[in-house]
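User: Sequence in, structure out. Go.
Assistant: Echoing your sequence, followed by the structure tokens.
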Amino acid sequence: MSNITGEEKRNLVIIGSGPAGLTSGIYAARADLHPLLYEGLISGGQLINATLIENYPGFPDGIQGMELMEKIKKQAIKFGADLRFSSIEKVDFLQYPFLLWDDNDIAISALSVIIATGSSPRLLGLPSEKEYLGYGVSTCATCDGYFYKGKVVAVVGGGDTAAIEAIYLANLASKVYIIHRRDQLRACTCNQKKIFNTPNIEVIWDSVVEEIKGETKGFTKNVNAIVLKNVKTNELKTINVDGVFIAIGHHPNTELFEGQLELTNDKYIKTIPGSTKTSVEGIFACGDVRDPIYKQAVIAAGSGAMAAIDAQKFLENFNF
């Protein structure tokens, strides 16, 4: 980094403003750790793209994703978390205190760090996919499947993620298409058996999504069809669907920490079982950046609380 403007000393820096990061901010602030929380370029994480959330405890009538994150954010600020609408661009965890640099070239010296940078769903890269994201295009069947009761949906992918999404949706939707670019699934045998034994699931082989179609009425958008291309014949065909679930995997946002922390083969941050402790003492990880399995907001929030408690115990050795 060039033109460093100075060094700011902090007890605890939290990177990320999704449910995990903000919850760790609430707990750390209430413990008088005076945390500095970097929100990143998009405050609120992936959840701000969710429409009505009905599985987060405490909201029996559901809550919009953006509203939920605003409430959690206000709670963190109320208890004294210092939120900064900026991103961390470089870290040095090989020395202590740890050093972090933000996108304003400010150097931060930290006694402890909580990483809550989350993961990002892999997308197809289609302009129409981006246009209808949150309006018929989803990356989470558990989050949005309820809205497709009795409707027709498509799941894109052929691995275990796609299989699990399709099996879940089959209990809600009248018809589930699995769109897979190969002639056999990559999912485990047990999931394949479930798929082939579920009457309302149909696999469309050797096909990719060329376009997602829909309509706009006033301020609302709705998906109504997808255009598929057969990768062997290049033949195009259109099928009518009410929703499209992209299930081609996630990638954790850990590029910043390669060479600094121990990562799994899938690039998730490796933590000590039963804790949020990483391979570097004083560095903690919570939420989707360490969780390749559950990917639920309530679980991320819980692990954020764990990280703050772990950081508090670590920092008890210091006098502030």
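User: And one key feature?
Assistant: The radius of gyration is 21 Å.
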